[in-house]
Structure formats: structure tokens, C-alpha cells
């Protein structure tokens, strides 16, 4: 073996051993394709994204809708469908935590140890795929909403803005659950911890009911709950009523803050577990 061969950098790496941006993007693309192929080979992995918006929209419309609005279910549909945009991202984000944990327990992540790829590319690829699942789930939710009488009182651009806002916030939550998936010992532990986080955030918010009907202490909690801000922003964007700038700004601030703080922790945890 010649000296030139021994000293040549690994393809995709710079002279100092770092993986370049173009190589990193190629790795992310390859891992995204791999994850999508897994979904194609295991279509039941899409069950939560496909079934949850149908089940929740029907459940809350016909079980709670009449009681919440004195029998006027169509009024309640227009209230809670934008709220379900906020809840959908949280539910799907939790599933990625159990998936990451299961991958480690099955040894899938061990295969990446010997590959000359950036450790962050594995997590970013999962983030991209989960964002796609969130989009599919949101589209199904809106279809169900229109079938049940949801009225878009603004326009397609405002609806698109509400969907994008929900995706951005939901994507930020995936970092939290990926970190939990790498920190807890079993998928059951991740799922249990996820429910402990999800239940107060979902039901202690304005997703299902106006906060004015809640006790003072709970109403104060909902004011700081990011799901309430996202639900309020989605309603304002789709109904044309209420402030838009404030809840949108707060939601984006939460999304950026969560990503900036948790993403580096998740990447570092992944590097430590695969080193």
C-alpha cells in the first residue's frame, strides 16, 4: 500500500477528519430513503399517522361535540380541528422515541458505528421522515374535518401557514422524544414517560375546550402551555378571528428554543451511545 493511499482522507471527509456539508447531506438523503423503504416494507408503521386523526376527529365530534356546544357539533368541529393539529405532532413525536429505543435494543444503531457518516445525520434523517408522517396525518385530519363540516373562513395560504406551523413545532418535539428514547432503558419506559408528558400538555390546553371554563390555576398553566398557543394560532389562521401574530410568534419561539437546547443534547447522547 502506497503512502499516498494511507494518508488519503476518507471520501466525504475534510483533511481534518470532519465530514463536509455535501457529504453530510448525501448521508441524510441516503438514510431518509432507507427509512422510507422501511415504511414501505412495514406499512403498519404508518398506522398511527393514518388512524389517529380519523379516530380522534370522530370521537370528539360525536362523543363530546354535542355536550360542548349544546348540540351544535359543527361549531365544535370548527373549534377543535385546528386544535388537533397541535396534538397530532405530539403523538407522532412520541412514537419516534420508542422507535429509536427499539433500534438501539435490536442493534440497528450498532451498524452505524463503523460507517464514515456524521452521527447527526442519523437523527436528522429520522426527523425528516417523521415530519413527513406528521404532514400525512395533518392532511388526513383536515380531510376528516371538511367531511364533518369544518369551514375554512380565511384562505388556502392561511391554512398552509397553520399546517407549516404545526409541522415546525411538532418537529421540534421529536428531539425531546429522541433524547428520551436514547436515555431510557426500554420502549415501554419511553412510552410511559411520553404519556406522563403528553396528558397534562394535551388536556391542560385550549385544544379541546376554551380555557375560560377552567379553574384559575389550570387556566394559568394553559397560558404557558405551547400547545395552547399553537392551537390558538391555528384557529386564528383558519377562522380569521383573534390575534395571529402573538400566538404564532410564541409558538415559533418555543420551537426554536426546544430545538436549540435539546437537539445538541440528543446528538451528543447518540455519539456517546455509538462511540
UniProtKB/TrEMBL annotation:
Organism in which the protein naturally occurs: Streptomyces hygroscopicus
Native organism taxonomy: Bacteria, Bacillati, Actinomycetota, Actinomycetes, Kitasatosporales
Name of protein: Transport permease protein
Membrane spanning stretches: 44-64, 76-100, 121-147, 159-180, 192-212, 248-267
Every ABC transmembrane type-2 domain range: 44-273
Topology in membrane: Multi-pass membrane protein
Tagged with keyword Transmembrane helix: yes
Transmembrane helix recorded as keyword: yes
Pfam families linked to this entry: ABC2_membrane
Protein location: Cell membrane; Membrane
Key words, A-Z: Antibiotic resistance, Cell membrane, Membrane, Transmembrane, Transmembrane helix, Transport
Family: Belongs to the ABC-2 integral membrane protein family.
